[in-house]
Amino acid sequence: MGMAPSLLRAVVASILALSAFLGAAAASAEPLVVRIGFASVGVDNRQFAGGSSVAIAHAEGYLEKAFQDTPEVRFEWYFFKGAGPAVNEAIANGQLDFAVQGDLPSVIGRASGLKTKILMASGAHAPTYLAVPEGSSLSSVKELKGRKVAIFRGTNNHLAVVKVLAANGLSERDIQVLNMDNATTNSALASKDVDGAFGNWPLIALHLANRAKIIYATKGDDPAFERHSTVLVTEAFEGAHPDIVQKIITQFVRAARWSSDNANFDAAVAIWARSGTPEAVFRYDFAGTELRYRNSPIVDPFLVEQYRFQARQAKEFGLVRRDVDVRGWFEPKYVDQAITTLGLEGYWTR
């Protein structure tokens, strides 16, 4: 005896509903791999970074702990020897969801059409240093005219250097620029194959080891010479997973709060030293600066204006070919919500 048509329809409908439910449940449980890139890498390719709150969050497993009850979400961290330019390439190839990188490479990425949003500061307000070989008679930026100078082009040091040169009556045309990464620069300074080099932590390490001499730092000079780094996310990832973005940024802000506390500085430099950069280097770099200033996550009007200024100068100095509009690029709502959630209103100056 056959099944009544009405009953058959009900059974079929139930089966379809159950299939849809199971399919949705399976889809919701599909693993999500969040790929985060740093525009730096540790000494001897160690998979750690230093000097920023997000570096603390990575080394101490902030995200992994926050998502431990969400096993379908996991994190992959990538560190790029090629710095900002390599990060931009990875974003262009769809290989990263988040990145921590400097102002100039971010501007260059936007100029080339990368669809990203800047969410928070991490590693902002950082200085740049000029070092010369040990025994050199050079003592000022102005004396670099006609000299061989190493610069890691395309990084956030680059635009700072261009501005420092301009403030001293020079341009890149007035010096012999040699494009070198950090390792090559270190070797060139040690062998005296260059007359000077601009950079950051590796130069401090050489200076402290008496293998080079720092003769100038932007620290204490015009704030326009500062280097800035931020956390950015691809528009595609933010659009698909705003809740995940919020949870990640909240953890990064927690790390920023911890890193901004003077009582935690010794512990912070010990964590950053996992990158292979000696603790003494970070102590030198942060000496005389307010931790709340260096480690603030806030995208404030000063930071936005600095990126607007960087974008304009990048065009003026020929580092990008087109105007870069920063309107709509910054999305501070995630940091603002994190500050509210963590009860940190007023902790950092806006």
| Secondary-structure arrangement, i.e. CATH architecture of the largest domain | 3-Layer(aba) Sandwich
- CATH class identity of the largest domain: Alpha Beta
SSE topology string: HEHHEHEHEEEHEHEHEEHHHHHHH
Helix content: 40-55%
Number of helices: 15
- CATH homology superfamily name of the largest domain: Periplasmic binding protein-like II
Low-confidence stretches: 20-27
Biggest sheet record:
5 strands, mixed
How much is the average pLDDT? 92
Identify the overall geometry. Answer: globular
Q: Which structural class fits the helix and strand makeup?
A: alpha/beta
Distance between the termini: 78 Å
Q: Give me the Rg, rounded.
A: 24 Å
Which strand order does the major sheet show? 2-1-3-10-4
CATH fold category name of the largest domain = D-Maltodextrin-Binding Protein, domain 2
Number of domains: 2
Tell me the β content: 15-25%
Count of β-strands:
10
